[in-house]
Amino acid sequence: MNIHELTFLQEKIQELKDTGVYRKLPILEGPNEAEITLNGKKVINLSSNNYLGFASHPKLKDAATRAIEKYGVGAGAVRTIVGNMDLHEEMEKVLAQFKREEAVMVFQSGFNCNAGTIQAIVEKGDLIISDELNHASIIDGCRLSKADKTVYKHADMESLESVLKEKRDQYRNVLIITDGVFSMDGDIAPLPEIVALAEKYNALTYVDDAHGSGVLGENGRGTVDHFGLHGRVDFTIGTLSKAIGVIGGYVAGSHTMKEWLSHRGRPLLFSTSLPPAAVAPIIEAVNLLMSTREYTDRLWDNARYFKQELGKLGFDLGKSETPITPVIIGNEGKTMDFSRKLLENGVFVSGIVFPTVPKGTGRVRCMVTAAHTKEQLDQAVKVFKQVGQEMEII
Ligand SMILES: *Cc1c(COP(=O)(O)O)cnc(C)c1O
């Protein structure tokens, strides 16, 4: 047999098919908005991370177009050579102001921000303590570091403290890493307690606020701001691809953090910087967020309304404290069926099952945004009711 036929991969693909988890990528025609055309069909979109509707906001599109006219379409190099435009510097200044931190370092995505930052700040002789439900990019970032790693039970402070108590003295630096908002359940990390433990045991803190930035805190400043913990978290990560609507990731923190990452953040040294057409709308988005609460208010209004209506129907919404609205179904097959039937009836909500979430806790995850109208939300609730009753979920 010819190795280039990749039969060893074909066999694995067949396994995916046999276990019912094989899927094709959905195809979106047009912008990612509250109502979309998906695989040729018009549906209500409850699956995006476009929390504020910024991904196709006219002001952001204008800013992108103007930036292309002035700067072209590519940055042309990595930042450490000649790919660091005045636009990139302005973006980081505006973000630092937004996050109320000394400095911000931007990467090309949230994923490679975690991959690049964690390995740059901890090394052999250090320990990483990570919440067991942290995002995949944190897990990969930890794997790239030569530090020892251990996990604590999700949001469990006794578990975290027992690790600190047992291991703190054996290491030089200890880094506690948590998501700010957990993307599968929509719960918020107990940051005040985490920070207090970090201070008690002289550990560093690292909060990945991909789902909190643009959502929680004053004008969407994030989870650290929500809890009033400015100055007490060492590294705060955000994405520019969710609420901000464009692409990119960043670390907010001290000047020292930024100075070090500009020398040792590998994605900055070895991968070209964000294009002008991404950077300019990011600046526009952050300025817009700082100038008005209109978008964050509408996001929360919509989320509260949608949760209240689904709750009234008797759906199990788990322990969400944010606009992320999981509807827990349980059984994996039934979850995927529910998602499929919702789509047939014009509502797109992705099903999420093991191994992304624990076995038996399959769910559809609804992402309500500021851009949804009450009519669209009402229609979605109606479809949830009809399909939920048909399938005897409610
Ligand atoms: C989405 C997400 C990321 C990745 O961000 P991208 O900008 O899409 O690469 C990282 N961390 C968390 C917690 C996320 O939810």
Plain-language structure description:
The modification N6-(pyridoxal phosphate)lysine is found at residue 242. Pathway: Cofactor biosynthesis; biotin biosynthesis. The chain has helices at 7-18, 58-71, 86-99, 110-121, 136-144, 157-167, 191-200, 223-226, 255-264, 266-270, 276-291, 294-313, 332-344, 374-390; strands spanning 28-29, 35-38, 41-45, 103-107, 127-131, 148-152, 174-179, 204-208, 235-239, 249-253, 324-330, 347-348, 351-352, 362-367. It has 394 residues and is an alpha/beta fold. It folds into two domains: 20-49 and 293-391, Aspartate Aminotransferase, domain 1 (Alpha-Beta Complex), CATH 3.90.1150.10; 58-291, 3-Layer(aba) Sandwich (Aspartate Aminotransferase, domain 2). The strands form three sheets. The chain has a seven-stranded mixed β-sheet with strand order 4-10-9-8-7-5-6, with helices on both faces. A four-stranded mixed β-sheet has the order 1-2-3-12. The radius of gyration is 22 Å and the shape is globular. Bound molecules: pyridoxal-5'-phosphate. Pyridoxal-5'-phosphate is lined by residues 109-111, 114, 135, 137, 179, 183, 208, 210-211, 239, 241, 249.
